[in-house]
Amino acid sequence: MSKTQFEETEMLQLFREICVGVQVLHTYRGQGGARIQYESNQPMSHEEESRQDQGLLSGNHQEQSTGGVASEGTGEIVPWAHRDIKPGNVLIADDGQTAVLMDFGSMCQARIHIENRQEALAQQDIAAEHCTMPYRAPELFDVKTGTTLDEKVDIWSLGCTLYAMAYGQSPFEMNMDQGGSVALAVLNNQYKFPEGSNKYSDNIKDMIQWMLTTDPSKRPNIHQILNKLNELLDSQVSK
Q: Which GO terms describe its biological process (predicted)?
């Protein structure tokens, strides 16, 4: 999907498709009585890939925290995070209307509590290896002891992805092109919209700014994003 130009309504529709896929990950439910366990570097079986309840979990899964990841299937929500959402990991289906989220090698259970500095540095190293820098959330650049990483890292990446769909690159890629520090730009929320660009309404800019909220506790969740997208699409249809 990289470098593709879209009309605003088409772009919002495709972006909504991406967000629906992310919602599947963020609202994953274990199955009653089933024990689901992924060992480090163990790819999913064909049976797991085809299970309808797992939605978009269709790539090689690589566990991203120390030890195995296991969930007793009690039906409770156990959020997962993709951690590398970007245009290059989104394919457009043959119908030209369906966006398919791909490449799950970075995926992990979303909520990881950081007990000490060693764990913080380990998570930073994992992010450096698996999360593309211009789309990486600020809390993954500087992981704090005593905090909990969660699925909001994907919301930041979605904000960067919508910006790239509209303007051709991540809001932080310009820093990389100019030899600046992407990490500092992300941590300080330093980006700008292209001057003289009026192809898209202010609604697009507002959506991007909302998702690129530095504090993850104040960043919207995937349900809020989808609700807003539905409002915008409904308003455009009614015009």
A: regulation of vacuole fusion, non-autophagic; vacuolar protein processing
Whether the full predicted model's pTM is greater than 0.85, yes or no, is no
Catalytic: which of 82, 113, 130, 223?
82
Residue 84 falls inside a structural domain: yes
Catalytic residue flag (residue 82):
yes
Number of structural domains in the chain: 1
CB contact at 8 A, 170 and 185: no
**pLDDT tens readout for residues 68-95:** 333 444 578 899 999 999 999 999 888 8
Strand, helix or coil at 92?
strand
Domain limits for position 39? 8-237
Task: Give CA–CA dist 121/118, Å, rounded.
Answer: 5
Residue 1 lies in a domain: no
pLDDT in tens, 145-179: 999 999 999 999 999 999 999 999 999 987 666 66
C-alpha distances (whole Å) from 112 to each of 69, 103, 121, 125 are 11, 21, 13, 14
